[in-house]
Design a protein that fits this description.
Blueprint lengths: L2 H10 L4 H8 L1 H4 L3 H8 L15 H13 L8 H21 L6 H7 L9 H6 L4 H20 L1
Helix pairs in contact: 1-2, 1-9, 2-4, 2-5, 2-9, 5-6, 5-9, 6-9
């Protein structure tokens, strides 16, 4: 099972978008399952299902980047710069797939459809439900970024 499939499995088991993306990378982050699920628990639906903030799938990806490339020393200006740059890069790549959108409510209203060009993982997996498309695409974008860094 690849990470896109694993993220879908989490989502179809009742977890939100942020939890599903974050936990799909559990093998790399070594994050304890209960801790990861708790940390991302309020980030679904654009923070507390308000649909007003960043898409939960994108939030889960940024949390994953933070665990994989931690900025943990307030005096580490370079570490802070790297953390911000990676989060910004992820967001730009994610937005490029969805016509510049990243807010949950805006994405919901956009009625996205999977395409081979912008959401190949969704096409490969036969995914057509809105949040499922966002989840597998967030995982896909994050995997691309990680592959480029190795």
């Amino acid at each position: 099972m690849d990470r896109c499939e694993l993220a879908l499995q989490y989502h179809h088991s009742g977890y939100n978008c942020a939890q599903s993306v974050l936990m799909a990378f559990e093998d790399l982050t070594k994050l304890e399952t209960a801790t990861g699920l708790a940390m991302a628990g309020g980030l679904g639906g654009g923070v507390g299902a308000t649909h007003q903030e960043l898409c939960g799938a994108a939030s889960g990806a940024v949390m994953t980047l933070g665990l994989l490339f931690p900025f943990t020393d307030g005096a580490d200006a370079e570490g802070k710069r790297r953390a911000y740059a990676q989060a910004k890069e992820f967001l730009q790549r994610f937005q490029a797939r969805f016509d510049g959108l990243s807010r949950c409510g805006d994405l919901l209203r956009s009625r996205i459809e999977p395409t081979e060009e912008k959401t190949p993982a969704a096409v490969r997996l036969g995914v057509d439900k809105h949040c499922d498309i966002l989840i597998v695409t967030a995982v896909e974008v994050l995997e691309e970024m990680l592959a480029e860094r190795s």
